[in-house]
Task: structure prediction
Amino acid sequence: MKTTPLYEIHRSLGASMHEFAGYSMPISYTSIKQEHLAARHDAGLFDVSHMGEFEVKGKGSLEFLNEVLTNDFTRLQPGGIRYSVLCNDDGYVLDDLLVYCFGEAHYGLVVNASNRDRDFEGLNRHVTGDVEFRDISDAIGLIALQGPKAVAILETLGVRTQDLGYYRFELITIETMDILLSRTGYTGEDGFELYCKAESCINLWTLLLAHGKVFGLLPVGLGARDTLRIEAGMPLYGHELSEKITPLEAGLGFCVKTDKPSFIGKHSLAKPVLRHRIGLVGKDRMIARQGDAVYAGGRCVGEVTSGTFSPSLDKAIAMALIDQSVEFDQFVVKGKREGEFDRVTLPFYKR
Result:
């Protein structure tokens, strides 16, 4: 099993470690609820060094990205970040990812850990001309600092963020460490992701945790990362996204630019959308789980993709993929248990 550069730190903090995407990762350090609420009210520190990072360089880089990904990067300027989807020829999702623009012919891709090898092999088959495409994941450490007090914590380190907009990044130095500071995250809170050299990861984590202690900063595991992203209505590959779900069904039409001349899966995505993703809030404390059947009007109309009990809302919440034609607002979810749920507009939580 693989480990991130912070593995020994997690063990020293008493984290509950489990396998995720081939890595030994912290699920929680104290409790999922405590860590979740720390990220919502104060700040949370996340090890996300398991994510994959690719580098794209060369004169044909822009054309390459526009051909293999659903979004359009033509107007993406240096310092900008854009969310996109990688589809197969049938229009189903192989992965969702971020694209960072460093210059006219220099980009970075951040992909899901579970899809890293497949993504690299698949994209590499489309490389032509002078495009240089490299997997640099093992050289990179990635730490997320999320929550209302993230800005204040960085300020104690001399980092000013007032001019750094959402989905923008800049290159900075923190105590001799070269950092790519990105105003992005996966929690629904304001926050940042800090990319560094793998060998700097322990020093950066320790420094952030020490400076954040007075602000209530806690290390947060993957358990609370999941409950936070569900509250924020954010999709996760293997749940709301998969090789059986299109980006249009998942509600990601904003990053599918069908006016581009071509991209992988474009023809298939021109077909009518038959399902869509919705939010559900339970009428009791029954928690819906992935794969549970969703019923309305006496018939099965879809299935749950993610479900949890929301620490912020004190309610059971779930996302589901249901038939596009269904107009009901009340549903019955059937799994190991059965419960009633109401349709709500995503996200469940807004800061």
Observations:
- Helices lie at 7-12, 32-41, 61-68, 116-124, 150-155, 201-212, 222-231.
- The chain has a mean pLDDT of 98.
